[in-house]
Structures are given as structure tokens and as C-alpha cells.
Amino acid sequence: MDTLASLADGFAVALTWQNIALALMGCFLGTIMGALPGLGPSNGVAILIPLAFTLGLGATPSLILLTSVYYGAMYGGRISSILLNIPGDEPAMMTCLDGHPMARQGRAGEALALSGVASFVGAFFATWGLVFLAPQLVKVALLFGPAEYFALFALAFMTLGGVSSTNQAKSAFAAALGLGLAMVGVDTQTGVPRFTFGEVHLYDGIDFLVAIVGLFALSEVFIFLEHRGTDKDASTAPRLDIGRITPSLAMLKKCTPTMMRTTVLGFIAGVLPGAGASLGSFISYSMEKKLVDKDNTFGTGDPRGVAAPEAGNNAAAGGALVPMLALGVPGSGTTAVLLAVLLSLNITPGPLLFTQNPDVVWGLIAALFIGNIMLLAMNIPMVGLFVRVLMVPPRILMPVVAMVSFVGIYGISGSSFDLMVMIAFGVAGWVLRKLDVPLVPVILGTLLGNAMEVNMRRAVTIADGDYSVLIGSWLTLGLWAVAIIGFVLPIFVGGVVKARMRGAAEREASITD
Amino acid sequence: MSDRIFGGIGLMLAALYAFAATTIPDSFMSDAVGPRAFPYGIATVMALSSLWFLFKPDPEPEWPRMGRLAEIGLAALVMLAYAQLLPVLGFVIATAFASAYLTWRLGSTLVQSAIIGVSTALGIYVIFHLVLGLSLARGPLGF
């Protein structure tokens, strides 16, 4: 078994004191960020990238730190869903439905412990899925030439809006905006400056880290300024007692089949482009409700309704790493941010990653296993600690988020110009969010724009200027077909799913209020 | 209406982008595609989706009232001033002021704001500079 041998090597890489400490730190910070409403996995990772970078960490340690944050945030999101009925991040939305009613019955501790176990099961098996599926995908990806890569990038953009976006035109606009920003700077193939308007600072292009931190972290600060003192203000929600924090064996036993089914479903949702963790938890919950909810207890504090979305979203988080590592094409917002880490460390993601930097890939995967066990240990006995962190009001938290973002970006370049660009992205991010334009395609565009163009030009140049090469093989045709289906299908079914997701959350809120 | 305005701005942006792309100079090294083709494609996608917003706008988003808009604008201005003053005043002083302003606007009282501002600045300074060794902006006082 090649794969297992590589995994063993990965453990050798990951098991150094520095890496274990980083994983521990990442898991801890991630859980906090996931738990705090307003900070989710993508902006949590975004804030920390510049720091990992300026601290001079190598590739493997930085990735270990940041993916631990990613997994941690997926665990942490449930805490505020259960206690406050406010999802700590988007994937945790479905956990509110049964988690909060459980908490109101005085079983908050049980709900927290059970969802911790469910998160562990989901993430643990999804990481095994990653171990076995990613190398298979790499074998396929090695057949890809530049034309196939161009089609693959197009596929990533066209499916990214996916089923959860309301308006495909808005995801298309967002992608064009991101790609357009990526073009700024000196053209790598011919050396001419493009869209720089004579500004020397722009010759290197726009640093995607600046864009990411501005769009994800600063725009959140503006959202909080907008909602202060209104009923969307998270700081006024009532607090609940926790109760016992161990789930009974009977409850675990009852939930085991649920966790197993939703882990598989969540993992598949994660691997598919454009679906991601939010959809993973949504379809897991819906399927379980259809399958096992015979007495109509879902929505009133059924433990299976807590286990299903948590196992689903954590499995999807692991699944989303498969296309990111194997193809270099992320399927979700946070994996797009993790891709930024790889790019800023000068590591080319994609199939060659597995042959050229096996230590990075397998070290990372091993670290995920280690992180998972740490998270389970952290999230059950120490959950009280994280609950206390939730008491930090946003008025203190958000300025800290803003300042840490500034510190990170200033640390990279030491230039005020980058800070101003970041603020501009923050304001733009706020406006785009108000208009319901998704931010993830913007980020993905700035990240992948140059690679996409290079592959397109390489393919056409090899074919002597013949553009038909872009659809010249069965593989490209297949990729384009999936891309077009992925773009068109949500126009018909996407609105329904999105409306149901929102509807479910709102119905629940009106019951418990 | 917001979506229609947005569509109009998007169209203008696409036109500007396409125009800026025409001004990209040719180079002595060139490939079959050249540096302009891909940007034209981007401008096309942008223009098409903007047209879509013009003809099929989404329901109106909930815009905040003028006061709140001014709030966001002022916060952005304070951040811009912060970016400019950071190298002049040094990290601790500039950060204390900026975070005090933000926490005040998010609902702290004046006294609380002063305390939170100073502790945020000092806290970040200690953790990131003294413990982690990150280089922060140095002011005339050396911190």
C-alpha cells in the first residue's frame, strides 16, 4: 500500500514539537473563531495567513497551522448555534434547528458533547476519504494538458456559485471582477504592464492576500457597524445554562447510524465543486429528517438532528480539501483561502504537488488526523472555556479583528499603500455583500486568474493560434459539459434549495423567539 | 432599483476595462494570443452579467439609513487615516486611537473606549512584537 506508506511518512513530518504546537494553537484559535458569530472559517484563516507568512514559517508548518484553524472553525461553529441560536458560521446554521431547542430544555451540555462527537466522526472519516480519493484524482489530473486546465478553471468558476447562490449572473460578475483584478500588473508572458495606470505599486499586481483580508475580515467590521443596536445585533441574546457535558451511551448509540450516513453524504457534497460545507450540512439534515423522523421530533431538540448536520459539515470540510490538493481548484470559500496560502508560499497546487512536495501533502494530512483528536479532546471537556469566549462582546472583538488584519498586511510589505488597497476592498466587500454578490468567486478569480490565462494562451500557442483546441479533446468537452450543467442547473433548482435553507432557519427562529 | 444602478455601474466598468485593455502596448515578444484577448473575454462576461442585472433585478436589499451609511463611511476614513499615520505616529499610538474609535462606534462608552483602545494596542504589541517578533510600524518614540 503506497498510500499508507506515504501517510506514515506524513506522520513523521507532522510529529515534530513545532508542528504539534502549531496544530494545537490552530485548533484552539479555530474553535474560538468558529464559535464567535461574525468570524467564520474563511475570515479566520484569512486573518492568520499574513501572520503565518510574516512569522517566516515554512510551507508545511503554515499549512498545518491554517488547516487546523479550518477544521477548528468547523467544530466551533456549533457552539453559538446551540447556545445562542446564532450560527457561529454559515455551515452551522442547520445545527441551530435542533441544537438550540435542546439547550432550552437544559440539555445544552449534552448537545455540545454530542455535536463534538459527530464533528469528530465526520472529520475523521472524511480525512480517510481524502487519503484514498486524492491520489486517485491525481492520476486523472496527470492526463491534463493546458486546454484541460483552462476548462477545469472555467468549471471551478461556473460551479462555484453552485446550488447555494441565488443569482448566477451575480456569481459570474463576481468571477469576472476577480479575474479582472488578477490581470493588473506586468503580463508574465510578454512583459508589458496591464491596467497599472502608471502606478508603480501596481506593477507587481494586486496582492491577493490584501484582497482576501479586506473582503473577508474588514467587510465584517463594517457589517457590525451597520447592525449595531438592531435586532440583528448578536450581543443581546440570552445566555443558557450548560448542564452535563457528556452524552449518554444510549444517545450515542441512537445517533451512530445517522452520523455514518451523513458523513458519507457530507463528504460527497464537499468533493463536488461548488457545494461545500453549508450544503453538506443542509442535505444531511434534510435526508435524516426524511429517513428517521417518524415521530416528528426533528426541530424540537432531537439529538439526531444535532448529529446529522455536524457530521455532514465536518465531512464536507474534509471532502473540500480533495479537489484543492489534487487539482489545485478549490471547491469552497475557505479552501480558496487555503489555496492562497499555497500560492503565497510559492507552492504550485495540483497533481504535481503530490510528486514534488509529498512531505507537504502527507504532513498536512497527518496533521489533520492529529488535529482532529486534539479537537475532540478540546471540544468536550473544555467546551466551557469556549462558551466563556462567546461572552466577549463584538464591540471589543471587532476592533481587534480590524487591527490584527492591519498588522498582518503591514507586516508583509510595510507599506501604507497596501493598507489603503485593503480598506478599499473592505468597503467594496461590504457593498457587494449588500447586493448579494458572492465574494468567493472574486477571491478565486484573483487567485486563479493568471494561471487560467497562462493555460489558455499556452494551449492556443501550441496549436498555432487555433482556438478550437480549447474544446479539442473528449476530456475538455466533458469538463465544459459539467461546467455548463453546473452553471445552468442552479438557475432552475438553486433558488428552491436556497429558499428552503433560509426558510428552515427562519421558521425555527420564529418558533423559539 | 439598486440592482439596476449596479448593472449600470457594472456596464461602465466593463467598458472602461475593455478600453484600458485596448491601450495595452504590444511587446517584441509575443505569443499567438497576446496580452489583450483574455481581458476582452473578462470584459464581455462582466458586461453580459451587468445587462442581466439591468433587465432582471433582484429584490431591493435592505440599505441602512443615512446615519448608518455615514457611520460606515467615517469608519473607512478613520482606517484610511490610520494607514497614513501608522508610520508617522508608530504602531501603539495609532492603533490605540483607531481601535478606541471603532469600539466607541460599536457601543462602548467613552471611558471604556479609551481603556479598550489602549489595551488592544498594547495587547497586540506584546503578543505580535515582543512574543512573536513581528516587525510593526515604528514611530518617533520607537514603538
Automatic annotation (TrEMBL), chain A:
A Pfam family this chain is assigned to: TctA
TM ranges: 20-39, 45-71, 111-134, 140-160, 172-188, 208-225, 263-285, 336-354, 360-387, 399-432, 477-497
Keyword field: Membrane, Transmembrane, Transmembrane helix
Residue ranges of domain DUF112 in the record: 21-444
Name of this chain's protein: Tripartite tricarboxylate transporter TctA
InterPro entries named in the record: DUF112_TM (IPR002823)
From TrEMBL, chain B:
InterPro entries in UniProt: DUF1468 (IPR009936)
Entry keyword set: Membrane, Transmembrane, Transmembrane helix
Pfam family, one: TctB
DUF1468 domain boundaries: 7-136
TM stretches of this protein: 36-55, 76-102, 114-137
Organism: Limimaricola cinnabarinus
Stated name of the protein: DUF1468 domain-containing protein
